[in-house]
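User: Hello! I'm new to structural biology and keep hearing that structure can be predicted from sequence alone. Could you demonstrate with GntR family transcriptional regulator? Please show me the input and the output so I can see what each looks like.

Assistant: Of course. The first part below is the input, the amino acid sequence of GntR family transcriptional regulator. The second part is the output, the predicted structure written as tokens.
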Amino acid sequence: MEDLRVVANPTLVREHALEKLRGAIASGLYRPGTRLVERELCEALGVSRTSVREALRQLQSEGLIEAGPRRAIIVSVLSPDDAYDIYTLREMVETRAIRQFVAHGDPKALKRLQTIYKAIEKHAAKGDLPALAEMSGAFYEEILEGSRSKVVGETGRQLLKRVSYLRLASMSAPQRVEAGLGEWRAIVDAVCAGDADAAAKALGQHIRTARDTIVARLRDEAQGGTLRRA
């Protein structure tokens, strides 16, 4: 919990509080169904209730939290069907983005994507799943940024935020990291070759595999009753 504490210039406190809370949800510190109490968040972050409330409003607009029973605020719980739909939309948006990424042929953007992939390989070799999940998110965001489309970028980032906390769970599945490395490698190779069709195909397959993995996990958890509201 000490990692949540915000240390920043007062003008940046609200933005940092939002980033800290979003990261806490993505990392699983606040799991789906967990109740978020304003007073406790103020103490953990070291910020005012106003800053916390503004951060919570933004998180609610992103679909990461929702109103629960008796007006409680809880971390959103995605159903298997919701997750399936979000990943399917991700495939549509991100394959469009990577086609535009390749079409622009920006060497600096390509270099950044390669650098991120090397970091993914390093974290995978160490078995550092939280860092791997964070870098994989950066990988997708680099593709969205490289599309140079405001609409594609904003839509894609919104979808990524909705499933950020599922990324770590997906990577925990047996052999998922090993398979994922091959999929990321195929994406980078296709982009380096300037082959938009191959890049879109590789990225689409990667997202579908992740989708199927996480949907199966959510269904198992729902049937086992492991996702309980705190």
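User: So the tokens describe the shape?

Assistant: Right, they're a compact way of writing down the 3D structure. Reading them back into a model, for example: DSSP finds ten helices and three strands in the chain.
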